[in-house]
Amino acid sequence: MSLFHRKPKTDAAAPALDDAAMAKTADAVVADAGTATPAPVVMPEAPAAPVAEEAVSTTATTENTPPATASEPTPSSAPATEPAPEPVSPTAVPAAEPAPVVPTPTPPAPAGAQLTIDSTVGEWLDDPVGGAIFRDMLAKAGQDEKVLRVVRRFSLKRLQSMSKGQMSDDIINDMIKRQNAGEMPAGASIPAPATEATETTTPDLPLWEEKITPDRFKGKTVIVTGAGSGIGRATASRVARESGRVIAVDMAEDRLKEFKDSLPDADITTVTGNITKQEDVDKIIETAGAQIHGLANVAGIMDGMLPLGELDDDTWDRVISVNLTGMMRLSRAALPKMLPLGNASIVNITSEAGFRGSAAGAAYTASKHGVIGVTKNTAFMYGPQGLRVNAVAPGGTATNIDGNNGSKLAAERLNPLYEALPDVATPEQLAASITFLLSDDGTNLNGVILPSDGGWSAQ
Q1: Domains in the chain: ranges and CATH
Q2: CA distance linking residue 144 with residue 58, whole number of Å
Q3: Average pLDDT value for residue range 81-110
Q4: Which residue is catalytic, options 154, 355, 364, 418?
């Protein structure tokens, strides 16, 4: 989804931002581990190779030229002799020359608070200049501010962290500099004060803050898949900071290393592996050791939102393999080291797409319905042996999963539904739900499918 094109600035104090630096929104940075939700987040790309001059701006800049004037009236033919003065008619009015065409300048912005990277998206949108900057960006991408509704409470800094590196420091600094200087986008007008509410809005509520429960996982070994980013990383981090031994699994070795380095005092063992391969599953179980107290099956991929008629075999096989088959294989392999404990817990990640057909494509929807089936059956079969098996169903969550909408039909059908969705959650909020079920705090809960979706499932 293209964001906007803007002619580079020539101010030497700030680097010029070309089209490539401001050209994209992630169609679903907002996704669970994961259900993709609307692309609510503006994420310009980081500067790439220089673009051709003709691609720098979509609007030509014209020089100020003097206005064209009407032709001087041609005098009537004069006789060779001295002409007598012409009588002046009392009603004659000389032709007025046309007034010069003066370009209408952009009105100066009213003085307001200077915004920063810590200001929320809502504060930016509500500010006359900051709002104009965002709306100008969105308009040039063919969108409006509704796509930012679900992240109004997020800071610009958090928005940047969700952008997978696309929202560069240069872009953020340019936005802040322009807002602080009261620099309105060309042609933008200052909105008139609202006289009455035009739509229902929700109040800005206090942000949730994570609260660690000391030693909640002390003496326990917990495997977490998808631990390199998003919900998986937040879950692994929460367990580690609550004194658990974490077996962090992901396919991205660099992400695992960065995660482990971020918690140098924690007991974290990383395993680079693919849960769809049996040899990697065996390696994970061997690394865990003699006892496995908890397993969080978080790893998952999306399907491009493809409906059945557009779904190819490769996408189907890949999504089912990761989201369902891999989860089944790892859980099956862990059972011999969990059941003898008489008190162990598995938490699977399903999705809103596990409840309904209007949250994702056909493959992803089928895989997450399947996760619910495996969860309930395993809970029933092994509950009497002390194994609790539950699932968390995230709603819109800011994660690293790619929720790109590759189907025009899906966009037409799903986009109208997105406008009523609750706010996007953070991975840490989902980790709070997952670790609750993983821990002994989840006692007496077995076979539960817990919607952690801000109320989406109540709609």
Answers
A1: 19-52+112-180 (no CATH), 221-458 (3.40.50.720)
A2: 19
A3: 51
A4: 364
